[in-house]
Fold this protein.
Amino acid sequence: MSHLTQVFTEIGGEFIIPEASLIEKMKHIKAFVFDWDGVFTDAGKDHLLQSRFSEADSMGTNLLRFSYYLNHKELPITAIISGEKNSAAFTFVDRERFHSSYSKFANKIDAAKHLCETHNIELNQIAYVFDDVLDLGLAEVCGLRMFIPRKSNPLFNEFVLKHHLADYTTGCTSGQGSVREVCELMIGLNGNYDLVISERANFSASYKSYLDLRKATTPIYFANQEGVVTEVNNS
């Protein structure tokens, strides 16, 4: 057992396919796509339908993008695809300078196809982080599937595994650092974790160059309006 596999299995993560196969899949990934509810959050909302996100998860996405930049000298495509409208997700996308936010998509494959057409990539070049039923259509066709299970839905967890819809399942559950977990894993699969941390800690020239590209990214917000992918404002 490799050190990477050992570290993540010790916190409860499960490698559905071998680490070597995950590394091979990572070589073809050009986009990181996240669900919102149940991924960045515990799926709970207040009476105003508002949710929150974790700064630890936020840092995870930043380090993952920097890891990709160090290997490819360009930013990966990043997006959130949600079945609902989430103000916190809009805030996150704006602050972190993700490329896109898609909201109100009950059929998430429509948003994913639009993302691919916009950025000239294929569905199998997407790494997808997900947790629930609405995500399965995209999980079936994307290139790398990171699944966040919950103890409260054991039959669904079994369904995902039985139908080969996940490549890794997290040890951390919804809203409890699961995004940071999968980001750290994917950086480990990229083979440059120590370099990522040292370059970020020292605010190196490489990190500054990455950050300039990130800051120059203008997020675009889309919503599903009567079955049409429509650009909207983030209010």
Q: What stands out?
A: The mean pLDDT is 93. The radius of gyration is 17 Å. DSSP finds ten helices and nine strands in the chain.
